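If you are new to this repository, start here. Below is one unmodified record pulled from the training split, so you can see the exact layout before writing a loader.
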Amino acid sequence: MAAPDPILADPAGVRPVPQNPALGILLRVLAMALMALLAAIVKFCAERGVPVLEIIFFRNAFAFIPVLLYIWKTTGFGVLRTRRPGAHLVRSGVGLTGMVCGFTAVSLLPLTQSTAISFSAPLFMVALSALILKEPVGVHRWMAVAVGFIGVLIMVHPDPRQFVGIGVLFAIAAAVGSAGAMIAIREISRTEPGPTIVFYFTLAGAVLGLASLPFGWVLPGPEVLLLLIASGLIGGTGQLLLTEAIRRAPVAVVAPFDYTQLVWAGVIGFLIWGETPAMLTLIGAMVVAASSTYILWREIGRSRS
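And here is the target side for that same chain:
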């Protein structure tokens, strides 16, 4: 699954709150637990025959409940006015491509492996920022990217008994899509508040999922239907917690805790599917985490200077 989509990472337009790093870390860890739970729900429903685009409809349609409550309590609904519908369309297209690939990867791979590969998104973001935004990328960041991709190569072939070629390709495509979404958000957030970006992305996801209705939706049983509804509530709430974490603590403080999602995924995967993470998956994930954290540290240093 793709890394948590950062559509609420930019809290522009939301009233500032007093800084509380401990609370920010706690909110970030809780958000990662919800994202791991969301991935498990996606995998569970897909294994019971629910098409990925149908899952995406429920994931976005019911996310409107926490998202609209958040907008109502923070910015007000006037924030939904936009003069850049085309930019929102591009951002949504890129992000939804990553979401489709991520959900497909989750359905095909062990939960820990798909989660670990998703953490390569920041590495792709560095490369895309140089190619698309023409941002200067120094030798230190390129070296960190190279080391990170070594970690990805370690992860994508962790154990011949678990390797699923098409699933790995979807997981990598999801990471690229997530990186592209970050690039699009960086550009659009210069003029659009975060709540505006998340609203239109969620709307686009619901429309995309609904448009797939004539192409083979299934009628889920009560258990699966409740889980599909929960996927929207959990996903939307998780994104809101990501936002609140950044509002209460600097990015440099809370971002390293994103990797706790791998722990949650490992626990859930073991309890539900009896998955035991391959050692090389964990080693590769640690290499990617170290390189991504170094890139973050360099970015923060450049911003301060």
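Two things worth knowing about this chain: Residues 110 and 162 are 8 Å apart (CA to CA). Residues 2-10 have pLDDT under 50 and may be disordered.
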